[in-house]
Amino acid sequence: MTEGDEMLRAPVSGQRLDILEWLRDPVAHFPVQRHGDLVEDGVSPEALAAKLGVSRAVARTHLDLLTGVGLLRAKRVRRRTFYSRDEYRIAEVGLFFEKGW
Question: What pTM value is reported for the model?
Answer without folding.
Answer: 0.80
